[in-house]
């Protein structure tokens, strides 16, 4: 072994006095990676709906596919690290791929308005790179923490506590910083959020590269993660590994695109994978009856975890829509970006984790069993949704609710997470036969992936009072037979009774060159007023000071004028951003089809949030009911 790879005895002695400095290298690397992931996640659905003009259902399903694949790829990335690369090379490779993915998203967000087709290609490519990079990064950095210490070292638990603190610091900072720069109300600013995430990931990679050789070492002073943990019999050329890496990244892009655009297959693939693994395990005659019983507990717990995380992960999807559109975020001097609410979970974890740790110690022998804690976590999750359902009950259209409801819900969700989350992986380790530990860990990751896919499908049921269905680039605004400046109209003191608009874009989802076609728009009806619902806040006349104040409270960033309706009055046309060369029309469906889930019609936000109350509540009650049996099976010896 090269002498440069061995620490001097005095360095080892110093490391033993506290935590090794390698822990803080891993802490910083993970913190910046989580900044990158959660910062991007905080604005992802907003970018899809506000810039790329995807509808909420499509954006939600795509969000679920993306986060589901994020949980799947570590299975492959961990295998490659163990067999061919080692931890450290995988961490650097994964970090670089994620940073590149964010830079590609920066390009996407820079071009969406002028080159939408190229922007869409960059969008899926960027997400694919981040999925691939996460697969290499995530499983390897966590495993290195324990390798810093001797196996029986009492500091390991404290080390993971410090490491997970880094995760939550990054999880709090990411949405805050990315939201500040990107979630401004102007879709053109989303690119700065992606750039901030790319810079954060770049910092993480630089920190790891600069300090890994000096500090990231095992208790004997040898470099950690330099060689594969379980190398194969045959050596593989590095060129082949890099080609495989390229193919893997391309595969991630393709899997995401196919699931989003062609056929939604991911949920069926996950179900088949879990069923296949279950058949393989429970037909294995070499396993004892006791081993199979304990394995059954893993499958049962994984099933209930599906309900928890599918509701919890609404944070990046439907709850972001709610924060953006239905939450009163105006403080008078500042409007809170909707993406900032995604920092709450990480902040609450930092605040309440010591409280829960103290509580479990204080209870001593009365500490609840693992299944009981999981049932309690589900119940707290249900109570969180009950808080926000109470907030929206009987609220009129266009009325926004206090931030207190959203903050309270996130507090309950964090308490539920602190009951449930720490248990899963340790339960799998305790109950798995040694020869099946990796396979059963795969089951756990598959369950989490499935939960995220389900989260997207549930978010797609988010009800809307009206749905924005198109945004057309149109010919210049015409008033009294001449094109006029939008600013003159916006500041006019005269009431404008009717607009004259003759042509619009043929392709409703593109602003690239295309043929223009006639659009028939009836004049705005007198019944359309500022108070009836969200769309009708906007009037074709100059607004009074009180009406302007209402728009400010509602979070409107620019003036819009009511253009008119279609003949059936089912669609409303809004004119905005007009000047002497171009105008933009937004089209809203005023009576969208109400979504359904398993025969349950979701008529409003109260119905939507009660769906999660019922789902998590029933799962909690059933889990409470079978807790004693699960505990008995876990401890079975014969």
TrEMBL record:
Its main location: membrane. The keyword Transmembrane applies. It is a multi-pass membrane protein. GO terms for biological process: peptide transport. Keywords: Cell membrane, Membrane, Peptide transport, Protein transport, Transmembrane, Transmembrane helix, Transport. GO terms for molecular function: peptide transmembrane transporter activity. InterPro entries: Dipep/tripep_permease, MFS_trans_sf, MFS_Transporters, POT_fam. It is found in: Cell membrane. The keyword Lyase does not apply. The chain crosses the membrane at residues 66-85, 92-112, 118-137, 158-182, 194-211, 239-258, 264-283, 295-312, 340-361, 373-392, 404-424, 436-455, 608-626. It comes from the Bacteria. One of its GO terms (cellular component) is plasma membrane. This is POT family proton-dependent oligopeptide transporter. It comes from Pedobacter cryoconitis.
């Amino acid at each position: 072994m090269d002498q440069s790879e061995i620490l001097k005895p005095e360095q080892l002695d110093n490391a033993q006095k506290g935590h090794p400095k390698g822990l803080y290298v891993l802490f910083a690397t993970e913190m910046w990676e989580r900044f990158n992931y959660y910062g991007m996640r905080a604005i992802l659905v907003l970018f899809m709906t506000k810039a790329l003009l995807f509808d909420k259902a499509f954006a939600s399903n795509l969000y679920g596919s993306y986060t589901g694949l994020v949980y799947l790829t570590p299975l492959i990335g961990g295998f490659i690290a163990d067999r061919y690369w080692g931890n450290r090379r995988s961490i650097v490779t994964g970090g670089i791929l994620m940073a590149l993915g964010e830079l590609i998203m920066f390009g996407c967000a820079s071009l969406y308005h002028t080159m939408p087709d190229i922007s869409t290609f960059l969008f899926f490519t960027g997400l694919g790179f981040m999925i691939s990079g996460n697969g290499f990064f995530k499983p390897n950095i966590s495993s290195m923490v324990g390798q810093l210490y001797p196996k029986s070292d009492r500091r390991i638990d404290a080390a993971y506590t410090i490491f997970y603190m880094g995760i939550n610091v990054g999880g709090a900072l990411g949405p805050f910083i990315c939201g500040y720069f990107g979630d401004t109300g102007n879709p053109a600013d989303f690119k700065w959020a992606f750039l901030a995430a790319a810079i954060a990931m770049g910092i993480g990679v630089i920190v790891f590269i600069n300090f890994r050789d000096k500090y990231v070492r095992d208790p004997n002073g040898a470099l950690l993660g330099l060689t594969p943990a379980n190398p194969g019999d045959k050596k593989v050329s590095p060129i082949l590994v890099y080609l495989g890496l390229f193919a893997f990244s391309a595969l991630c892009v393709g899997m995401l695109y196919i699931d989003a655009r062609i056929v939604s297959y991911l949920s069926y693939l996950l179900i088949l994978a879990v069923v296949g693994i279950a058949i393989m395990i429970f037909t294995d005659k070499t396993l004892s009856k006791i081993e199979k019983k304990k394995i059954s507990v893993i499958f049962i717990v994984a099933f209930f975890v599906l309900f928890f995380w599918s509701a919890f992960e609404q944070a990046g999807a439907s709850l972001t829509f709610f924060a953006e559109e239905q939450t009163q975020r105006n403080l008078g001097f500042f409007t809170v970006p909707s993406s900032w609410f995604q920092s709450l979970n990480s902040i609450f974890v930092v605040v309440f984790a010591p409280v829960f740790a103290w509580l479990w110690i204080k209870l001593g022998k009365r500490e609840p069993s693992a299944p009981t804690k999981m049932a309690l976590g589900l119940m707290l999750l249900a109570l969180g949704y009950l808080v926000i359902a109470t907030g929206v009950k009987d609220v009129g259209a266009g009325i926004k609710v206090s931030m207190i409801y959203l903050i309270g819900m996130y507090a309950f969700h964090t308490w539920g997470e602190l009951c449930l989350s720490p248990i899963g992986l340790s339960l799998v380790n305790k109950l798995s036969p040694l020869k099946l530990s990796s396979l059963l860990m795969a089951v756990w990751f598959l369950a989490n992936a499935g939960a995220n896919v389900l989260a997207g499908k549930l978010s797609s049921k988010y009800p809307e009072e009206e749905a924005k269905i198109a945004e057309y680039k149109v010919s210049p605004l015409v008033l009294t037979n001449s094109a006029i400046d939008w600013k003159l109209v916006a500041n006019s003191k005269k009431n404008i009774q009717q607009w004259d608009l003759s042509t619009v874009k043929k392709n409703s989802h593109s602003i690239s060159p295309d043929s223009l076609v006639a659009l028939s728009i009836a004049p705005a009806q007198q019944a359309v007023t500022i108070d009836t619902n969200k769309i009708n806040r906007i009037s074709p006349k100059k607004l009074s000071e009180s009406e302007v104040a209402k728009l400010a409270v509602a979070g409107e960033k620019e003036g819009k004028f009511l253009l008119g309706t279609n003949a059936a009055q089912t669609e409303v046309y809004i004119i905005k951003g007009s000047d002497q060369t171009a105008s933009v029309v937004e089209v809203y469906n005023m009576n969208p089809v109400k979504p359904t889930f398993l025969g349950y019609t979701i008529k409003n936000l109260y119905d939507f949030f009660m769906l999660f109350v019922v789902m998590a509540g029933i799962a909690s009650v059933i889990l409470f009911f079978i807790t004693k049996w699960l505990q008995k099976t876990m401890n079975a010896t014969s």
